Amino acid sequence: MTQTSPESLAPVRRLDPEDAQLALAKVQELLHRHELVENLVHRQQQGDQRASLVEGLLQRQHEAELNSLVNDLHPSDIAFILESLPNDERQLIWRLVAAEHDADVLLEVDDWVRESLIEAMDHHDLVAATGSMDADELADLAPDLPPDVVAEVQKGLTIEERARLIEAMGYPDDSVGGIMDFEMVRVRDDVSLEVVLRYLRHLPELPDHTDQIFVVDRSEKLLGTLSLSSLLVNEPEIDVREVMSTDYLSLSPLDSDADAAGAFERYDLVSAPVVDDIGRLIGRVTIAEVVDVIREDSDEQALSRAGMQEEDIFAPIAMALRNRAPWLLLNLGTASIASFVASRFEDTVSSIVMLAFLMSIVAGIGGNSGNQTMTLIIRALAVGRITGKNVWQLVKREMIVTFLVGLLGSLVAAIFAWAISNSIPIALVMMAAMICNMMIGASVGVMVPIVRTRFGKDPAMGSSVLLTFATDSLGFFIFLGLATIFLL
């Protein structure tokens, strides 16, 4: 990473998403243009002693343009650009990023990019980048850092900071303790608001997302919260205990980060205190961490439903194959079973060719119906709305809704089947098969996420593959089975 003094850096811009995409396009354009120019110069001057000099000048010009563009961006936008480039180009841009931005960029990029960036940094650069991080930030990066770097950074911490780091590293990644922040403002309940105001004015700055001050006793036990609005609108002579709020939401460090995100969404929180088993204040969670949790959970669910894990979109083909092949092979197996089921009714299909055109509709509608139900269930599980007491009520409701929707949709499908086949029996078979397969899709859409959750598994992992298997195989079996019974 480029060693640039703070004085030489231009003011950093924070871009909106559209501008970040424009910056990415500009970086890609510069990379492509300079690659073309360098290749052209290399071919034209091959064997010329001045070729290496010209190429060196072009390379420096190339890096100067990119350096000027990249280091004018906010670290979040630099992270976006790094995530959007192939590994070779990503490493080139990363070498040009000013050292002052290294820590912020490492915290902003996704895990699959961070690993490649850390591998490209030497020991000194890593120590310099992580040495200024807070304990909670360092704990986030520690699993990806070489042990010797973590050990050296720990030596530069105070006893309190080292204790915070060890504590933060001891919590699971998906817990409140894994995302909590140690930077917060604490006051006693027996001081006046004027004293609190004077104390705040002596701070270099307030911690990010400070909307309330935490009131603790001499044992650091949380007594209440003092909002900044209460601090400003009340008389300075009033004691903190008279205006503090004792009606507040607190979190445990072992709570799920998803549960914390649900609480923030439900109560419109900006920050919340984290207390241990005996009520001592040990940290806080802010809306910034919660937004990251919500985004990561959303990304994981979208990938899990297709049986995938997070991967670098520019990762080597072999790595992508290891990620995607297992569930695709499983999908191939389930599709083969569906085809085998259809092949058992060869005589039926050959006798009534129209069935071959209609059975894909039955399977497709069943799959779509199941996907609707499954999406609702996974979402409800994520926010904790499904419990042991309401699960069967929910199953019953989904079955009724699916039956009524299926009844309406099957009427339309039956009319369509009659219109193209001019056969009322085919239309009735189509109608019955469609209702049955939609009910199967809804059953699978409810039961697969709930059962996986009951066994401690990701409810979304591979759910679409299992749903497709059920609605295709059973859809073909029901439709062709009914046709065999009633049409032949």
Question: Would you kindly provide a written description of the structure presented here, covering whatever features stand out?
Answer:
Helix content is 66%, strand content 5%. The chain is mainly alpha-helical and 488 residues long. The chain has three domains: 6-173, MgtE N-terminal domain-like (MgtE N-terminal fold), CATH 1.25.60; 186-304, CBS-domain; 317-487, Tetracycline Repressor, domain 2. Strands 1-2-3 form a three-stranded mixed sheet. A two-stranded antiparallel ribbon has the order 4-5. Helix 12 (193-201) links the parallel strand 1 (186-187) and strand 2. The model is unreliable at 4-12 (pLDDT under 50).
| Strand runs, count | 5
Overall pLDDT score? 83
Tally of contiguous helical segments: 22
Given helix and strand content, the structural type is mainly alpha
Topology overview:
Layout: H1 17-44, H2 51-70, H3 75-83, H4 87-96, H5 99-108, H6 111-119, H7 123-130, H8 135-141, H9 147-155, H10 159-169, H11 176-179, E1 186-187, H12 193-201, E2 212-216, E3 222-227, H13 228-233, H14 240-243, H15 257-267, E4 271-275, E5 281-286, H16 287-304, H17 317-343, H18 346-351, H19 354-382, H20 391-421, H21 424-454, H22 463-487
Parallel strand pairs: 1-2
Antiparallel strand pairs: 2-3, 4-5
Keywords:
Tetracycline Repressor, domain 2; mainly alpha; 488 residues; 5 strands; single chain; 22 helices; three-stranded mixed β-sheet; CBS-domain; two-stranded antiparallel sheet; MgtE N-terminal fold
What is shown here, in short?
The protein has 488 residues and is mainly alpha-helical.
